Amino acid sequence: MIEFRGVVGSDDVRERLLAGREADPDSDVIGLVANGDMTGALRTLMQRHGTSVYRYCREALRDRALAEDVQQQVFMAAFRDLPRFSGRSTVRTWLFAIARHRVLDAAKSRRRARSQVDGEGAADLPDPRPSPGERLDDVRLREALVACLQKLPAHVLTALLLRFQQGFTFEEMADVCQEKPGTLQAQVTRAMPSLRVCIETRTGGAL
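-> structure tokens emitted (207 positions)
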């Protein structure tokens, strides 16, 4: 594992980081940054949120290898930007805002790459379908869910994953997505009936 080193040398940075500690479940991470222990802060973040960030990336991108790459990018960016963390949201919300941007960038890059290959080259691209080990007992339902989710616009898919996979409140989602909570709630509410219809159609009503 790569070791990172960093020092926060400014008193104003220390005071800004410590100001929001009480309300944040990750206040110990903020404390480590304030004390100049960037390696410890990054290690704690990865242990605490690494799995959930990876799951979000994997479901959004449907590519395990790409999700692993993006996960690493997220924590590298977090390490770089933690000294400038303002405390206006929780660390977890801030981390998923980074993840959202990295996922969108990766999806755009993948679309560009696919548009540049011919049919033969496209066969070499990663298979976006889940591996047998990742599938639920009801394979048809899982495959239908994946297919229907991928039909959604990226911003709607993000909202659904943050809400139902990660358990964010709409207020937290607003910090991640830079949208109003009501807008995100409306996106989720509107998406659910069409998602259900899509799944029922693909499974012959077996939902």
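The chain is about 70% helix and 0% strand.
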